[in-house]
Write a structure and sequence with these properties.
single chain
Length: 189
């Protein structure tokens, strides 16, 4: 069993890295802004950016899985799936864009599921767990809407909602950074 002094030391050490969440959050926001500037002739670039977004998200989940006490396997599973999908996306960016546009509703539903599960897994000790839950529910609504669109509409929807996805991830990470920072102050206090 871990004593309180050791736990406080671990929390303080993790909280010292709060800026990593802030930097990733800012990067997600920058990626969102870049994606939202693209038009239809930037299909390959969007395919690569989607791949990068998936790899970064996967790395975040694996990093989180290292530090959480329970449900480690779930964090590693989602992280691994995102990394594999990201590598495939970067290897075939134009095909990725076309394939993602074809299955856009399903992809958004999968992302929504990940965010909703993440919200409930982090509920204990996380007063802002509901932020991931709300983002997941919104993404689920978007998934059903996107699933009913025609391909060309889906292609433009993919551009817009890939940017929205990155923006939502960035906001969650920025808020999380300050949460982690405040936990460190409480543990050190």
């Amino acid at each position: 069993m871990v004593d309180n002094a050791q736990r406080e030391t671990e929390v303080t050490a993790i909280a010292g890295m709060w800026w990593l969440w802030l930097v990733t959050g800012i990067l997600w926001v920058v990626i969102a802004l870049v994606i939202l500037q693209f038009d239809s002739m930037s299909v390959a670039a969007v395919g690569v950016l989607v791949g990068v977004m998936l790899v970064v998200a996967g790395a975040q989940y694996i990093f989180t899985g290292i530090f959480v006490e329970g449900w480690k396997w779930l964090w590693f599973l989602f992280g691994g799936l995102f990394i594999v999908a990201g590598v495939v996306a970067m290897a075939y960016p134009t095909r990725t864009f076309t394939a993602i546009a074809d299955v856009l509703g399903f992809l958004f539903a999968l992302i929504a599921l990940v965010w909703i599960v993440e919200a409930f897994v982090t509920r204990d000790g996380n007063p802002l767990w509901w932020l991931s839950l709300v983002a997941g529910i919104l993404m689920l609504l978007i998934a059903f809407w996107a699933g009913g669109q025609f391909f060309f509409t889906k292609a433009y929807t993919l551009l817009a909602f890939a940017g929205v996805w990155a923006l939502m991830r960035g906001i969650v990470d920025i808020v999380g950074a300050f949460q982690v920072r405040s936990l460190g102050k409480i543990a050190a206090g």
